[in-house]
Amino acid sequence: MKIGIDIRPLQARHYGGISEYINNLLPELFKAGAKHQFALFTSSFREPFFNYSELLKHKNVEVKSYKIPNKILFFSSRFFHLPKVDRLLGGIDVLFCPHFFPISVSKKCKKITTFHDISFDIFPEFFNLKQRLWHKLVSPKRQAKNSDIIISVSHSTKQDLIKYYKLSADKIRIVYSGVNKKLLDQKIQTSISLPKKYILTLSLMGPRKNTLGLIRAFDVLKKNKEFTELYLLVAGGFDKFYKSKIKREIKKSPHQNKIVLLGPVKEEQKSVLYKNAQLFVYPSLYEGFGFPPLEAMYCGVPTVVSHNTSLPEVTGGATLLVDPYRPRLIAEAMEEILQDARLYNDLLIRGRKQAEEFDWRKTAQETLNILEIF
Questions:
Q1: What is the DSSP letter of 56?
Q2: Using an 8 Å Cβ cutoff, are 318 and 347 in contact?
Q3: Which of 305, 284, 286 is nearest to 351 (CA)?
Q4: How far apart are CA 346 and CA 338, in angstroms?
Q5: Does the global pTM surpass 0.90?
Q6: What is the CATH code for 2-178+359-371?
Q7: Scanning 33, 127, 144, 336, which has the fewest C-beta atoms within 10 Å of its C-beta?
Q8: What fold is seen in the domain 182-355?
Q9: pLDDT by residue (tens digit) across 67-125?
């Protein structure tokens, strides 16, 4: 069987959840599907940001790279259903799309697409005009309709697809993502100067990550003099339209000298940040899955997450759940964990156990089982 995979999302400038998904899934998928051939499709007018050499170490993998600008590909696929990517790949049985980029295939070729979330349809206010226009061009709903099977990364996302896209539940298969345990288990030194005591949040910052709400909650927490030396570390890349809002919020804070914007961090630095944190807080307004809380839990860090969307499902009762719209309640949850040693240790143990359930080899095998249906 020859399986095509659209790896164009790896060309994104910022490393986020979708890049995490593809980078961790594909090597395990190639091993699980050793008897199959994989043809990876990518296209970019400019030099790609991603180095494909690691993927090519697998003997059953080839990369087909083209110089067609993706904006042209999106437009052509969306309105003219050309080019037929299965033909560009030399003939394939099924095309796997780890994201909903527009892409066209011949009638004889089946298409399977992973949906991580549909926040752009549920909360358009989280996106600027350029991003909304991009999603209108891409039309994720159309990509879902044109897929033979959809892989959803959570029950929460599956329900969103059924509700907003009117899809049949039978068309959607749930396959949970994994945790990069090998990376998190590494003992790596970092050049980042870390305070002795800190609360950590880490994500690709944008409006739905609710960093502003966390800063306000931190201000409430700091009213307790027991936490005088406690810092808040904000790590991860930024939506450029959101970064200025975060900076303004920090300047308004009476504890601005205890709030540190780390910006993007290398993947190998994440484990150090997690393992030295007193607490991890992720008050997101919407998540289709949510890698950072599971990573923090795996590293033995008690965690606070929002009580909405996929987060209660994925964290499995091993965190404190909060209303992300109420900073005072976020602050109370943080205070409760930091002051209650029994609760702290209970969350640490249960969090690690829950995170260990999410394994990329399992994700790869379940994904392969779906690909092999055809």
A1: G
A2: yes
A3: 305
A4: 12
A5: yes
A6: 3.40.50.2000
A7: 336
A8: Rossmann fold (3.40.50)
A9: 888 889 999 998 999 999 999 999 999 999 999 999 999 999 999 999 999 999 999 99
